[in-house]
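so my prof wants the structure for this chain in the C-alpha cells format not the other one, which i didnt know existed until like an hour ago. anyway here's the sequence
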Amino acid sequence: MSSYLFAWLLFLGLALGGMANLMMLNLTGGRWGVPVRPAFEAQARLVPVAALLAIPVLVGMRSLYPIGLTPWFDPAFFLARSVFFLLLWTFLAWL
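here's what i got, hopefully its the right format
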C-alpha cells in the first residue's frame, strides 16, 4: 500500500503542477506560454483521474496511517478533508 501511495502522490503532484502552471499562464497572459500551454492543459486534465485513483488510498488508510488516534489522522476527518480537496482540485481543473 505504501508503494501505491508513493506512486499516487507522484501522479497527483504532476497533475496539480501542470494545473498550477496553467493557472499562472492564464493570470500573466502573453504569447510566451503558447508553446507549453497544451502540455499544461493535458496535465490538468489528469486531476479527475488522480481523484479516482485516490480511492484505494482512502480504503487502505488504516494500514497506511496506523496512528489514527490523532485528530489529524482521524478516519472521518481524513476522509472528509481528502474528498473536499480532491473535489476542489477537480473543479479548478474543469474551469
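also thought this was worth mentioning. The chain has a mean pLDDT of 92.
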